[in-house]
Amino acid sequence: MLHMLHRDPLPTLGRCAAALLALTLASSCADDGEATDSSSGPDPSSETGDAPTTTTPDEGTTAAPTTSEPDDTTAATADATETGEPSCDHAVACEDAMILDLGLVDGVTSEGAVSSMPDGAGFVSEIDASAGGLPNAPMNPWVYMRFTDEGLQRVDIDDLQSLGSHDWHIAAKRFAIRINGGTGGPSCVQAALADGVAYEELDAVPGGAAFAEEAFYDDGCTLVDDGMGQGSPNYLLTPWWGYAGCVATTGVPFVLQLPDGRTLKLVIDAYYGSGQEGCNETGMMGSDSAHFTWRWSFLE
How many domains does the chain have? Predict the structure, then answer.
């Protein structure tokens, strides 16, 4: 059964004040000597305590990838994007709040590697969303990407440019993943959670798929918490993970709809570069956090 994610219902600061405060936050350190990742609240990969228990996902493919060239196209015009996708432009609400809550960084583009290799009709993609490691994350940007017939490609824009760009479909920083639509960006990428359906069984968009755009702010620009105990935004793809001593993957697949109408299935196989299986089974933290492995494929 597919369903829209349940949502529970910060005053807006001036853009300059928000940017200055973001820089102040970026230079601060947590009490334990580690910087706090402001992209979506405290990074669960460095914390212990009460958190949701998750199911163990299906084992993913981990073949060595080949690196694709980044996509360096610029933002869309009012009528259509340079990549030929139809325009669905809207102003991003709550920009000033986003700068603070999502740890947006101006003038810096991500150097995180994004690579893909064929996996049947789809791809296995590896994404470095570590943002320079937990202590450096507040000073580093999200990594922006788009789904193409050649694989997942990085889009070289900075965080503030992303608020006006249609060239990206999905972005990641540490454990946070957001799509370009609704409160997440100016485009109209949508997602639906496939509940109770294995990734391998999805060969078309199931009937009744209820697609939704990001909505992690309410009308008053108050952040909508995901309820996971980390104070993180309620991103549509939040159900990919749970926390029980480490960041465990749930194996829950998603269906995404892109602005041009194409659809794809996506599952997050790993958050850690190594040790994900041990995390899922025993709660033992893996290594190389935020080095993702995703499986995805376009649907007919």
Answer: 1
